[in-house]
Design brief:
With 325 residues, the chain is α/β, with parallel strands linked by helices. It contains eleven helices and eleven strands. The protein has helices spanning 21-34, 46-51, 84-96, 108-119, 144-165, 180-188, 203-216, 233-244, 264-282, 302-307, 314-323; strands at residues 8-13, 38-42, 54-57, 101-106, 124-128, 168-173, 193-195, 222-227, 248-252, 288-293, 296-301. The strands form two sheets. Strands 3-2-1-4-5-10-11 form a seven-stranded mixed beta sheet, sandwiched between helices. Helix 7 links the parallel strand 7 (193-195) and strand 8 (222-227). Helix 1 (21-34) packs parallel to helix 9 (264-282), helix 5 (144-165) packs across helix 6 (180-188) and helix 6 (180-188) runs parallel beside helix 11. The radius of gyration is 22 Å and the shape is elongated. The relative contact order is 0.18. The structure holds adenosine-5'-diphosphate (ADP) and 6-O-phosphono-beta-D-fructofuranose. 6-O-phosphono-beta-D-fructofuranose binds at residues 16, 107, 130-132, 174-176, 228, 258.
Length: 325
């Protein structure tokens, strides 16, 4: 059932950018156009809402964006928005521009902002756009697959040189406090050791021993993938070299992991989620997170979604361990 009180909606991207955010914006704009809505593109996340930096978008405004990384609306982190006054100002500006609803694409910080806006009277729905895959209520976050593929390409290249020099390579990947990127990319790249913040480790047992065992089994290299939540890869490489005698190098992959043309998975998931956000607003629903559960696109209440816990897969940790022999 369409809610005819929704005539104008806004869309913004917030927090760290992620490949597929453009596909999400495109889906919001075109689903809006399909339903005869006016869609306002808000620049620089919540900053743009507070400062009234927005302009009308139409189906053509999002042409040629599907294949591009980053976000055409730009993104930012906005401290002012975390205050009561900031949220009130954002709502006031939304009123000035006639916004009846808002779609937010971002991570859990952005979702907290979306909840505050809904509570303050601006119907808001959100969808997960972050490379970290750390949103508890969703099995998947837009940008994760592209990031994993970027990490896979980089680690494959590092492996070439590590093998040639018979070295140990210690590689730090992003993920904030979560280890999903490290775990899945580590498995995809056949890492000898994967360190994630969700799992305690013992340096001698879980790092040095597998490296020495790999050498004695005839491996020409050792690849150690470390989540940024553990960090310290430069010191770790030095310690490995000092204690094993195996020449070691550290690489921090950094922001390369956030760029690039989105994969099919990210384009399709972003399109589905973006379209669903608009439909929810049209159905008169607000304060919802559009998410993926059991492979299907669904939605949950933002407060409930933020309270959920996401466990790292013990099965995948075990698999990585078995396959690293
Ligand atoms: P992400 O959305 O990727 O988790 P951040 O945590 O940086 O990224 O959050 C993005 C923006 O969302 C912040 O700059 C801020 O404007 C808003 N935000 C973050 N946390 C909160 C919060 N607790 N309450 C209200 N707004 C928040
Ligand atoms: O949330 C995405 C992310 O790339 C994290 O993996 C990382 O910790 C953080 O953002 C980096 O943020 P910035 O771009 O501010 O350095």
């Amino acid at each position: 059932m369409e809610n005819r009180s929704i005539r104008t909606i806004g869309v913004l991207t917030s927090g760290g950018d992620a490949p597929g955010m453009n596909a999400a914006i495109r889906a919001v704009v075109r689903t809006g156009a399909y339903h005869g809505l006016k869609v306002m593109g808000i620049k620089r996340g919540y900053n743009g809402l507070i400062n009234g930096e927005m302009e009308e978008m139409n189906a053509r405004s999002v042409s040629e964006t599907l294949q591009r990384g980053g976000t055409c609306l730009m993104t930012a982190r906005c401290l002012e928005f975390k205050t009561k006054e900031g949220v009130a100002r954002a709502c006031q500006i939304a009123k000035v521009f006639g916004l009846d609803g808002l779609v937010v694409v971002g991570g859990d910080g952005s979702f907290r902002g979306a909840r505050d806006l809904s509570n303050a009277g601006l119907p808001t729905v959100a969808m997960p756009g972050t490379i970290d895959n750390d949103i508890s209520c969703s099995e998947y976050t837009v940008g994760y697959d592209t990031c994993l593929n970027t990490v896979k390409d980089a680690v494959d290249k590092i492996r070439d040189t590590a093998s040639s020099h018979e070295r140990c390579s210690v590689i730090e990947v992003m993920g904030r406090a979560a280890g999903y990127i490290a775990l899945e990319a580590g498995i995809a790249c056949g890492a000898e050791v994967i360190l994630v913040p969700e799992k305690e480790y013992n340096f001698d047992e879980d790092v040095l021993r597998p490296i020495l065992e790999a050498k004695s089994r005839g491996k020409k290299h050792a690849i150690i993938v470390v989540a940024e939540g553990i960090g310290g890869v430069i010191e770790m490489a030095k310690e490995i070299e000092a204690k094993t005698g195996i020449e070691s190098r550290a690489t921090i992959l950094g922001h390369v992991q956030r760029g690039g043309s989105p994969t099919v998975r990210d384009r399709v998931t972003a399109s589905q989620m973006g379209a669903r956000c608009v439909e929810l607003l049209l159905e008169g629903k607000a304060n919802r997170i559009v998410c993926m559960q059991k492979g299907l696109i669904t939605d949950v209440d933002i407060n409930e979604g933020l309270e959920m816990k996401k466990e790292i897969s013990e099965e995948l940790i075990e698999l990585a361990h078995k396959l690293s022999v």
